[in-house]
Amino acid sequence: MQANIRRVALMLALLSPLTVGVATGQDKAPAPAPASSSAQAGASGQILEPGALDLVKKMSTKLAATPAFLVRTRSSTEAPGGTGQFLTFFTESVVAVKRPNKLSAEIRGDAPPFDFHYDGTKMTAYEPTHKFYATTDAPKTLDELVPFAAKTAGILLPFEDVLYSDSYAVLTKNLTSAFYAGFSVIRGARCEHVALAAPGIEGQIWIDAKTDLPCRIAVTLTNVRGAPRFAVEFYDWKLKPELPDKLFTFTKPEGAKPMDFRALTGAGR
Predict the structure, then answer these.
(1) 29 lies in a domain?
(2) In whole angstroms, what is the distance from residue 255 CA to residue 109 CA?
(3) Is 28 a member of any domain?
(4) CATH at residue 254
(5) Are 117 and 127 in contact (CB under 8 A)?
(6) Domain membership flag for residue 34
(7) pLDDT of residue 198
(8) How many domains does the chain have?
(9) Residue 49, Cβ neighbours under 10 Å: how many?
(10) Domain for residue 155, yes or no?
(11) For residues 152 and 32, what is the distance between their CA atoms, to the nearest angstrom?
(12) Distance CA 160, CA 171 (A)
């Protein structure tokens, strides 16, 4: 049973389009753009505040204009276990990105360790404890990689929202509401809090008021049984890192054995 729970933890740790935890002690502040007559009405009559959308747009623009970055993340996953009781799992990642087509991630925590490499031609997942790896030809860009990894290997990386060339288009697709929810102080920085909703998803984003970079992203999957909650916090951003190309290419360790992607990640179980 413990092994099964850990396997679920791995899949949940790799899951998540939007992600983040509950902010505590949050102070309220006037929204950057008030939800008055200037607010747009959503299709269901809910409010889409221009000020909230502007904050998300600024974040997306900043990410798109950053050709390379290194960032650390801390993710949490809350989902019902076998008895229905909610269980919480934590993972930490070191993520390196070179646009438009390079990604390296080292993921550690409650789930089994997991490394991910993408160099614009190959996508490889590696489980270092037992030295299993899976590799395949991959699309040419990060934008194409995200849905490809999900379809091919059942992998949805918890930090995927920062990978897109246009995060705004992804985060605001099919929105039914968007509003400014105040601000939080995260790791000493003021982070503007935006709440978003779309069919099946309730999301939150905290955006650094000075850098426009995401501090935290969170989601509740309301259409999934048990409404699992995911969270990822971003910190220690480095926007001009030295990232050698070999970082993104998998070099098979001695004794490593090939494996099917879905067997490696547990997505086929």
Answers:
(1) no
(2) 24
(3) no
(4) 2.50.20.10
(5) no
(6) no
(7) 94
(8) 1
(9) 23
(10) yes
(11) 41
(12) 11
Question: Given this model, what pLDDT does residue 4 score?
Answer: 32
pTM of the model: 0.81
In angstroms, the first-to-last Cα distance of the chain is 14
Tokens of 23: 């902010």
E strands along 86-228, which residues?
86-98, 102-109, 114-118, 122-127, 132-137, 177-186, 189-198, 201-208, 214-221
Q: 47 pLDDT band (50/70/90 cuts)?
A: confident
Q: What is the DSSP string of 113-147?
A: PEEEEE-SSEEEEEETTTTEEEEEE--SSHHHHHH
What does the pLDDT look like over 143-166, one tens digit per residue? 999 999 988 888 878 788 899 999
Q: Is 236 left (phi over 0), alpha (psi -120 to 50) or beta?
A: left
Determine how many CB atoms are found less than 10 A away from the CB of residue 253: 10
Give the structural domain span for 49.
2-21+39-265
Residues composing the chain: 269
**Residue range 17-38: average pLDDT?**
34
Strands (E), 1-85: 40-41, 47-48, 68-80
Give residue 110's pLDDT. Answer: 86
98 token code pair = 């070179």
